[in-house]
UniProtKB/TrEMBL annotation, chain A:
InterPro entries: TM_pro_TauE-like (IPR002781), TSUP (IPR052017). Belongs to the 4-toluene sulfonate uptake permease (TSUP) (TC 2.A.102) family. It is found in: Cell membrane. The chain crosses the membrane at residues 12-38, 50-73, 85-102, 108-125, 170-193, 213-230, 237-257, 263-281. Keywords: Cell membrane, Membrane, Transmembrane, Transmembrane helix, Transport. It is a multi-pass membrane protein. This is Probable membrane transporter protein. Its main location: membrane. GO terms for cellular component: plasma membrane.
Automatic annotation (TrEMBL), chain B:
It holds the Pfam family DUF1634. The chain crosses the membrane at residues 93-112, 124-145. The keyword Transmembrane applies. This is DUF1634 domain-containing protein. Keywords: Membrane, Transmembrane, Transmembrane helix. It comes from the Bacteria.
Length: 287, 146
């Protein structure tokens, strides 16, 4: 199936490993998951069947999420209660998504992937311009009070404890179902959908939203990974090197390099992402 | 109980001391579980890849082998197959076992959270967590019957 040039198994594994390290590195620099970068390279360049690419990606998503979450949880940045509450929806969504993936064809997957990728690129662009003005105190929310979702975290940059209140938990739940479905269908973490659901809809601070999203992604991905495994879409010769490579890349990215600050460099990446998403969309339309 | 000043404590002593001084908070427990699971999985996958190439020198030279390996149903994708392969020290099955450990880590994290919420007598969240766990198990079950 994975008709990759005329490579020997060793060459293939070596190439996939290198590509995955690159994807993990770039993903952690841009604050995107590795999957969003990895899947186009595996499918468009290495000609791997999209189902195997998705199966490999979903396992690497669990790896990077768990690795990053270990630090976020220890530092008290991830809100464990909000995460558990919203995981009800993301896991349900992931199950629907992974089941749907067995029914829809490869072309539909390419098309949807292109669309989500374009959205993520544009969301990144918006984040560039957005100024971080302090928002108004959200109105009290009975359900959020009852569930005790509010929290606080220690902000390193200001050196003080920041308390925050959560509202509209049910809106968040609905948005998370959609994010979970997309994640299950495409084998990506879909953090680009999860973060705004918490940040904009539920009123969590952006740092907490990012940390909590990372924490949740592992559970969402595990739900669909189980289904992909049973279906035989997780090939050790692809998923093995991908999993190790992306994790190494993401670790290097977080350890040795700070997040990209330069606006122009980010703009360049947005342009590349938009171009790749155009490629995926046209592959979905033309077949 | 404090360690002797000036004497470098052995690794075991350090962990013992930190565990005594810093109470194991739920956050720390979850953090350790995630980190340990990822490390175990990565070692299994890496060992498996090395073993595979060690046992099949032709994988370095023959392009045909790749077609066979990535053909559908070539890889073990049932729990029993993976287990038998690991027992037979087959590299591919070690890789699969590593990937399965990775998939299991978040599930264990939810199970651990359930224990924590129950210990805290937080009935609402124990119920929510049970729901998440049930959905996860449903996912594995659905995948199995398909």
């Amino acid at each position: 199936m994975a008709a990759v040039l005329d490579a020997t198994p060793f060459n293939f594994v070596a190439i996939v490993l290198c590509v995955s390290i690159g994807a993990g590195l770039l993903g952690s620099l841009l604050g995107l998951g590795g999957g969003l970068i990895l899947i186009p390279v595996l499918t468009l360049v290495l000609k791997v069947d999209i189902r195997y690419a998705v199966g490999a990606s979903i396992v690497s998503v669990i790896a990077t999420s768990s690795g990053a979450a270990a630090a976020y949880v220890r530092d008290g940045l991830a809100n464990l209660r909000v995460a558990m509450f919203l995981e009800l929806a993301t896991v349900a969504g992931a199950v629907s998504g992974a089941m749907l993936a067995g029914m829809v064809g490869g072309r539909a997957l390419y098309f949807l992937f292109g669309a989500v990728m374009a959205y993520s690129a544009l969301a990144m662009l918006r984040k560039l311009r957005e100024d971080r003005s302090p928002r108004a105190e959200p109105p009290p929310d009975a359900l959020a009070d009852r569930l005790g979702l509010h929290g606080s975290y220690y902000d390193v940059s200001t050196g003080g404890e920041v308390t925050y209140r959560v509202h509209r938990p049910l809106v968040g739940l609905g948005l998370m179902y959609i994010a979970g479905t997309v994640s299950g269908l495409l084998g990506i973490g879909s953090g680009a959908l999860k973060v705004p659901a918490m940040d904009l809809a539920m009123g969590l601070p952006i740092k907490v939203s990012t940390a909590t999203s990372n924490f949740m992604i592992g559970v969402t991905a595990a739900a669909s990974a189980g289904i992909y495994f049973a279906r035989g879409d997780i090939d050790p010769f692809i998923a093995g090197p991908v999993c190790v490579g992306v994790t190494l890349g993401a670790f290097m990215g977080s350890r040795f390099l700070t997040k990209l600050k330069s606006g122009s460099l980010r703009m360049l990446f947005v342009a590349v992402l938009l171009w790749v998403s155009y490629e995926m969309l046209s592959k979905g339309i033309r077949g | 109980m404090s360690p002797e000043p000036g004497e470098p404590p052995s690794p075991q002593e350090t962990t013992a001391v930190t565990q005594e001084v810093v109470p194991l908070t739920p956050e720390l427990l979850i953090s350790q579980l995630l980190r340990g699971g990822v490390l175990l999985s990565m070692s299994l996958v890496t060992c498996g890849m090395v073993m595979t190439f060690f046992r099949h020198p032709d994988y370095f030279s023959s392009p045909d082998a790749l077609q066979r390996l990535t053909a559908p149903d070539a890889a073990p994708h049932q729990l029993t197959d993976v287990f038998e392969g690991v027992m037979a020290v087959r590299g591919q099955s070690f890789v699969m076992a590593g990937l399965l450990v990775m998939i299991t880590v978040p599930v264990l994290r939810v199970a651990l959270s359930l224990g924590i919420f129950r210990a805290q007598k937080d009935r609402t969240f124990a119920a929510i967590t049970t729901g998440v766990l049930a959905l996860l198990l449903l996912a594995f079950f659905l995948g199995g019957v398909e």
